[in-house]
Amino acid sequence: MHADSSSSIATTRPACDAKATGGQVVFRHRLSTRLWHWTNAVACVILLMSGLMIFNAHPRLYWGAYGANPDHAWLQIGATEANTGYLRIGSLTFDTTGVLGRWTDSNGQLRNRAFPSWATLPKSYNLAQARRWHLTFAWVFALGLAAYLLRSLFNRHLRRDILPMAEEMRPAHIWHDIRQHARLKFPKGAAARRYNVLQKLSYLSVLIVLIPGMVLTGMTMSPALNAVFPWLLDLFGGRQSARSLHFLFAGGLVLFVLVHLLMVVLAGPVNEIRSMITGRYRLPKEKD
Amino acid sequence: MARLIARRAVLAGLGFSAIAGGTAGLAFSPDFREMVLGTGERLAYGTHRLIGRNALAPEFTEADLSPDFRTNGNTMPRSEVYRRHLESGFSDWALRVDGLVNTPMAFTLDALKAMPARTQITRHDCVEGWSAIGKWTGVPLAQILTRAGLLPAARFVVFHCADDFGGMAYYESIDLVDAFHPQTLLAYAMNDRPLPVGHGMPLRLRVERQLGYKQAKYIMRIEVTSTLARTGLGKGGYWEDQIGYDWYAGI
Prior knowledge:
heterodimer; A: 4-stranded antiparallel sheet; two-stranded antiparallel sheet
């Protein structure tokens, strides 16, 4: 039912799913997917770390068109007069001394900044350089997304491999997959040829919500692009809302990557990483 | 089919080499890093000039004004000359316009206020991330430049300011697309009052598609040039020279 369109690798792919068995090597990831995956891996690390440095320049988030120090911030990271670090969200305040707001750098110096130097690019406070990293790799990220989405529409990767089928969306099926995942029982043999429904849903939300959301909220923060695409401001509810959403979407992506890395480790890191380089994936055996 | 596989292998090889080589270059070669990190600014400038040369920045209503528009940068120039002008209400002050112009000129504050004015409610975005909405009234810069008349070699407009950081006077510059943009003003009023000292009395630039550090305050002189190389340290603005902010403000 999921015939592979990459006919050039026909020798390594089973005639149909039903015949695929555990231990067999199948063609799993197209070249466009693999190249984009690794480009993004590099770009995302750079964008995240330089983004945290940019956040450090003004560690407050607002809703609406405007927002500055005299206005109400819904999220704030800072240091108190008693020199403890804090994260404040709405009316909740958390003591984050050592990690956020106040922390010790690699030279043993205490610093009052939002994100610590191990998480930022560059390591010590430099808004100008962080912006150069961020606004250069934003192009890599955005153009990569555009190329991948075009390619995936064209070769039907999205419809074929990522969009869940109606049958998979039955609550019973989803519930079954959740239980299997919770027990760390991953699909074996022929079933492992395809993404399972939880994978499909998380990849889909990353591909059509989080990543495009990052790019569009980023564009919304540009005063020059506001002049060209004023509808972006309406879409996100103003520049400061877009900045808040940019931060939240980034948090969503970090969460996704953490779960993704955990799953790679649990499912067999050598096989998984190799498949994202060569495209070839060894189907897990039905019985271990 | 063999050819197809070979072509695919070459593509894969090129693609993965580019990713690995690029990452290694960024990590280990400062020259390569500098070259790559200038790309964002160049692409943004080129793209914006291509797709949105004359697009207007969004304008807001009175209801959208920030209740409290914060100041930043210098909020009180230290120079004796500025203080004397402040005491005399800028009555014997004049904006000088020179450089690559047909007629070097001087405009008193009254002369500027007598010219056709524009009022706009726009959002001010600091490079650090905050935004404030204010109402600005002033003379479109295009009028001043048209009166003085540009010489053919003119490419940039440089703003020389009365404030300084550690003895170095603030300056900024923009290209002629931004200079002649209808929303680019020399503002002398903010929120229906004379421009406060903290916001740049007597004149501040409003160049609405740019970040805050481009909105020069305390403007004393406008110079039209063919190059930015001979002003300041050559990068087109005080912060560009001192800490490496992008000249086009790159977003």
